[in-house]
Amino acid sequence: MQKKIILFLVGIALIGGATAQAATITGKTLFEGQAPAPQVMKADADPNCAVLHPNGLNDDSVIVNNGALKNVFIYVKEGLAGKKFDAPKETVVFDQKGCQYSPKVFGIQVGQSLQIINSDNTLHNVHSLSNNSPQFNLGMPIQGMKLKKTFAKPEVMVKIKCEVHPWMSAYAGVLDHPFYVVSGDDGSFEIKNLPPGEYVVEAWHEKFGAQTQKVTIAADGDAKEAPFSFKAA
Q: Does domain 21-84+179-233 have CATH number 2.60.40.1120?
């Protein structure tokens, strides 16, 4: 009995060690040159939004902090052919709060549950402009209202817009694998748990387009850097 317990604990340690040694791709999404000044959009067409934003809202399509570009979608574009990944059980939450979508850019797997919430005391609309999955166009007039949807096939990127408030837009990166991330306030990103292989990694931004890099992971535990730099046309 004691021998079985020891073997079981060794097995757990080996499994834990394998997970800890999985490879990662890290980097930053940078912006070169002078960042464009944000446009101010009026919100007075909806009295509820006007109360929240009496001076209007800044366009959130380009957010640059100290030379770092936020809301870039980075994902493995090539290199996973033949590999299959189950949809996560965790739900992705997509909110309408303060008359804006949150998050602005997000990733989700095919078949993963997307919970859409209206946290505002006003009518919102969620219209997905997907090409590979059935579109949905949902009116959400009640504060606290929740709906659930899924995407049927991969697509980078799916635009989501509000028919009621034209300044509201968001983008979903729909993939059949879990190797994606959105750059944060400081532009940093990390894609974890990649197996060894040769990959094409793409970084996508709604205003500045997409860039790709080839990344080779030779063995478990590798840590590769793949920085991306964007600039205005």
A: yes
Distance set, CA 93 to CA 21, 141, 172 (Å): 30, 18, 12
Distance CA 49, CA 111 (A): 33
> What is each CA distance from 5 to 14, 146, 214, in whole angstroms?
14, 47, 44
**CB proximity list for 46: less than 8 A, separation 6 or greater:** 99, 122, 164, 165
Give ranges for CATH 2.60.40.420 in the chain: 86-176
Q: Report the CATH number of the 86-176 domain.
A: 2.60.40.420
Bridge-based pairing state of the strands 146-149 and 114-118: antiparallel
pLDDT along the chain (233 residues), means of 10: 42 39 89 89 90 91 94 97 93 96 97 98 96 96 96 98 94 98 96 92 97 89 90 82
Cβ neighbours around 120 below 10 Å, total: 22
- How remote is the C-alpha of 61 from its chain's centroid? 14
- Contact (CB, 8 A) for 160 and 171: yes
Q: What is the pLDDT of residue 111?
A: 97
